[in-house]
Amino acid sequence: MIFLTQLIYIQEGQEDIFHQFENIAIPAISKYNGRLLIRVRPGDHSIIENNIDKPYEIHLVEFDSDQDFQNFNQDEERRKFLHLKEQSVKAVLLIKGTKI
Is residue 5 left, alpha or beta, with left meaning phi > 0 and alpha meaning psi from -120 to 50? Predict the structure, then answer.
């Protein structure tokens, strides 16, 4: 089991484009033994302390294996819409871990 946390930073004004991509990408997770555990859009009042910019969204996802995650990344339907991600996402910080 692997866990992935993504801090997602969006280009200003591209939120709708990002949501279009997410409407395709998120359902694909389950096709590859994955689960979206939580999706958070943090507000200014929910941050106690920070030394980095506030992300637009935070996703915590689990996959049964690293191979499942790699297969998700290669999903043909998802790849057809990567241009939406490229247009709307400024940066992603991906943190990979395991349960301890």
Answer: beta
Residue 46, number of CB atoms within 10 A of its CB: 9
DSSP 20-56: HHHHHHHHHHGGGTEEEEEEE---GGG-S--SSPPPS
Beta-carbon count within 10 A of 91 CB: 11
Which residues form the domain of 73?
2-97
- The predicted-structure confidence for 1-31, as pLDDT tens digits, reads as follows 999 999 999 999 999 999 999 999 999 999 9
Domain count, the chain: 1
- In this prediction the pTM is 0.90
Helix (H) or strand (E) holding 86: helix 82-88
Six-digit token pair at 86?
């490229």
pLDDT tens track for 29-46: 999 999 999 999 999 899
Task: CATH number of the domain at 75, please.
Answer: 3.30.70.100
